[in-house]
Structure prediction request, 455 residues.
Amino acid sequence: MKSKLAIYLSVLAMVFAFSSCANDDGDEASSPYAYIKSFSIGNVKSSYPAFTATGKDTVIVKTISGSSYPFVINQASGEIYNSDSLPYATNLSKLVIGMTLEGVAMIYVEESGAYETFSLEDSIDFTTPRDFRVTSLDGSYSKFYTISVNAHQVEPDLLTWKNVSAGVSPSPEKAMEFGDRIYVFGRLSTGDPVVVSTKYGENVVWSMSKTLGSLPSTVDFSTMHLFNGTLYVLADGDLYTSADAENWTVALQGYGLLAIIGASEAEDCLWFASADNIYRREGAGVLSVFSALPDDFPLYGVSTMSYALSHNKSIMRYVLVGYTTKEKDGSPKVWSMLSTEDAWEKYDNTGNQYSCPALERLAVLRYDDELYAFGGKGTAEGKEVEAFSSFYVSRDNGITWKAQTDFYQTLPKELKGLNIPFTAFIDSDNYMWIITSDDNVGVYRGIINRLGFKK
Prediction:
């Protein structure tokens, strides 16, 4: 009897605390309704690591507006949560909340093992989900809720790496996701081209290498492209295609092709270059001469990117990075063209300290809407650098390239200083792969955390 009286008195006290939230159309003291209408949080602090201008570690404290993170109320399941998580390192231990409701709310307190009254003016610890009970003003009905305040558990902008397998043999020259597998192409010491593969997913188990007898030993795997579900690669000036990565047939001969310089499924076209011309091919049609080959145009060690403009998705931008000699000496050249233009344009980086780095086995990938360059030892930003020292990122489509000097986006530390063969690619789940043949180094897969967040 005493416990029932205590509950009645506590509910009666809460009637006055939440009287403004009660049903306005009837007798407040006899309302049979009990539910939360809305829930919100006040402003909250978030602290995250950063660097000062002199490179020292520091912590930045930022005030996060609670109104920017609306809460979902599922009346059927009794769950309340914010679907858009608060920033990493947000302090959830002292949150001031706001709610409107029918009835009187109480919060479950673990220490006492009971539901207790609370004040909206006091802070509440939401580091773990909290249970609430809402009781109707006439005491006839109670509804229970679990309220979760979600915050990211990892730094969203941090590029995290995982070693997923030992090295791939033979020495890798090109890798890509094709269908439900990842294929790595290379060649034996005899020069014979081979391929290994693994089922796409978390478990990386490489197949035995398979000799590609339908490709000549002179195949240039660096030219390989995936276009409309078909693989394309060049060998001795001819174009070969494959629907399964293992069996190849000649698709074009007689053009003396040296590079595939662009591919766009959005435009349904491939771009090629020979020693004399630039060619364009729509779908599976014939090659047409687009223009004579410009001076200083890259044909070797070429990396290509094609993507729609952010402000006009109907216009494609092509970016081409590569060398003008087979030896891949000198500085890499960067060329670009929009799909609305009638000529490729060279970026003149004369006097630009932040031109594309000249690195051995230079890899250039488009990742997180930016261009990433990295590789072996070489020259970058006007000085000599060791292998895998850092990413060089271009945010202006290839004009300037600056080293990533913070701790958010770094290469695997195990690779630093190792001048070893490797290949790299981006898969359909936003993971960056770096594949080596060295068993002591192996294969790494990394992702910027926020690119892996599920919606």
Notes: The two ends are 50 Å apart (CA to CA).
